[in-house]
Write a structure and sequence with these properties.
The structure is a homodimer. The first copy, chain A, is mostly helical. Chain A has two domains: about 80 residues, Arc Repressor Mutant, subunit A; about 120 residues, no CATH class. Chain A has nine helices and no strands. The longest helix of chain A is centred in the first third of the chain and has 31 residues.
């Protein structure tokens, strides 16, 4: 007995989804090479063997593609969690930094976009502003769950949260520029020892 | 008795220097708006009322102008110090962060360039790599002079130096995206309290 043929629409849907992912990955590569403003839909289309017209069938505009890039990156980072709903644990944050140390391509794409996002009317500007707000709030919750209203160092969770976020972003730039000069996971652990000398070996 | 007329060359030299500075400031503005790759010499020339040909008289290429932008920014930060020769003190680092909180334009230019610098073959790439190496080394010297081979938190100066640099860079992105949501000098002082709970009020 063979499985019944799946209706065309579904097959197209699954194929379409795979194709969309392939396009988003190609867009990440082009952004890592040239930044978002320097990226062209033509360059993305060429990487996946589509015409620019064919690409627009999947993503009607360059901004739509940018949103898809940022969304995919968030999904990779958060695993099963939904950002803004369930804060990560400290151990999960360490896990993200360790994973990042093995995926310079996506770290490069994200860092380039973060830099560009502070320029005028950049389409990623609102994304980063909202994301920072959520991530600072989540980190404060994470820190409070672990250590209560005062960290061993005397800081409040609200004081430490923007520092935790700044360390993750800031280390990435140093590491991208000199991978052999900066051990990103070790540096992040050193920062956690500042927060609590006892907690992390 | 009147002063003898100064030779043309000298007057041109002084005027030329003022003009060069005016051009560099215009370039900073254009980079803050569009990034370096998105910046055109035509846009810079227009801001200072020069033709593009006239601008090339002062800066023969876009890269020359970029170098001048980065150099001027370093001069503003370092005051009388020469980066790589005399490390700043902790108090001077606090002073830089406080000054930055009142000059978002140059912070924006620098942050945009830092982001772009991780993309392929970016002309600011070597500058940032070398600068980070120097600044980490300088910061380790600063920390050792102040606290010796072990900070009160137990970290070595070499462990804390990249964190200090990462905090300064990382906070700038959060602050640029939401100035009312992040108090950059207060956050930097909170980080210093992590290093030494006694040292900073």
């Amino acid at each position: 007995m063979t499985n019944p043929p799946r209706p065309n629409g579904v097959r197209h849907g699954a194929r379409g989804q795979a194709r969309r992912e392939e396009i988003v990955r190609a867009a990440m590569e082009v952004i890592a090479e040239r930044g978002y403003r320097g990226a062209s839909l033509a360059a993305v289309a060429e990487k996946v063997g589509l015409t620019q017209q064919g690409l627009l069938h999947y993503f009607p505009s360059k901004e739509d593609l940018l949103i898809a890039v940022l969304t995919m990156r968030d999904e990779w980072d958060s695993g099963e969690r939904v950002i803004g709903e369930e804060p990560m644990t400290i151990a999960q944050a360490v896990g993200v930094v360790e994973a990042n140390a093995h995926r310079s391509a996506i770290v490069r794409t994200f860092s380039a976009l973060l830099g560009e996002s502070v320029t005028e009317d950049h389409p990623a500007g609102p994304y980063f502003r909202d994301r920072y707000r959520l991530v600072r709030r989540d980190m404060a919750i994470t820190l409070r769950r672990r250590w209560g209203d005062r960290l061993p160092s005397g800081l409040t969770p609200e004081e430490a949260a923007p520092l935790l976020v700044a360390i993750m972003d800031g280390l990435q730039f140093q590491w991208l520029h000199e991978p052999e000069g900066v051990d990103m996971p070790a540096s992040f652990r050193a920062f956690l020892r500042l927060i609590d000398p006892e907690a992390i070996a």
